[in-house]
Amino acid sequence: VLRSKVEIRYEIIRGTLKELPIQLPDQAVLYKVSGEGIEDWRTFAATDTEPRQARIFLGNEREGTYRLELELEQVAPQTVGQPLDIPIVRPLGAAREMGVVALFDGDKVGFADALTAGYVKSGEDALPIDVRQKLAGDIVSQAFKHIGAPAAMKSQVAAAKTRETRFDAAIESLYTFQQN
Q1: Computed over its alpha carbons, how large is the radius of gyration of the chain?
Q2: Of 7, 18, 62, 87, which cross-links 25 as Cys (Cβ 3.0–4.6 Å)?
Q3: DSSP 3-state of 130
Q4: How far, in Å, CA of 33 to CA of 22, rounded?
Q5: What letter would DSSP give residue 115?
Q6: How many whole angstroms separate alpha carbon 33 and alpha carbon 15?
Q7: Using one digit for the tens of pLDDT, what is the confidence trace for 93-128?
Q8: Edge-to-edge strands of the sheet including 109-111?
Q9: Helix (H, G, I), strand (E, B) or coil at 7
Q10: CA 107 to CA 96: how far, in whole Å?
């Protein structure tokens, strides 16, 4: 299973928002939506004129900034060398878009070098600092930045890379010498 966690940060420049349309990849299942004041959310199949999408309905109109988190999953092949479409999510109707796609290898399988036309290769430092702090020791194997609508991204299933084991240790030793 390929799991995706997507954070969308809205900067509402003019006006207010009460409904947030999000383009979803066809193969992924949206199973969790988190954000302040969410009243309801629904997914809609693609039509002749619209892509597959989720619509998040907020209880109150929002202005300023707003943060939304989505969690998705999709069935992924387990055989090394099998092609893999990276699920790309994007807000619909945004005046400007920019973002980072970060790939994390699992314990048994990982990502081969991604095919990324329209992206700029970057590192973990491209992620916002508060996102990096939530990684809890996970290591970004590949990261890519985009400006404008994100393009499709493809990879292949690869064998998991050997991870260097690191740990911290604190030793406290107390010795008492007693004469009997």
Answers
A1: 21
A2: 87
A3: helix
A4: 11
A5: B
A6: 24
A7: 998 999 999 888 887 788 889 888 889 998 888 888
A8: 83-86, 153-159, 109-111
A9: strand
A10: 36
Q: Could you tell me which of 69, 50, 64 has the C-alpha nearest to residue 5?
A: 69
Q: How far is CA 46 from the centre of its chain?
A: 22
Q: Contact, 65 vs 9, CB < 8 A?
A: yes
What whole-number distance in Å separates Cα of residue 160 and Cα of residue 155? 14
What is residue 162's predicted lDDT score, i.e. its pLDDT? 64
**HSE (CB half, 13 Å, CA atoms) of 169?**
4
CA dihedral 4, 102, 53, 151 (to 10 degrees): -150
> What pLDDT digit, counting tens, does each position of 41-81 carry?
999 999 999 999 999 999 999 999 999 999 999 988 888 88
For 45, the token pair is 């199949």
Burial call 120-143: b when 16+ CB within 10 Å, e when fewer: eebebebbeeeeeeeeeeeebbbb
Structure tokens at 89: 């999510």
28 closest CA partner among 88, 80, 69: 88
| Token pair in block for residue 44 | 């809609």
Q: Is the pLDDT of residue 23 over 80?
A: yes
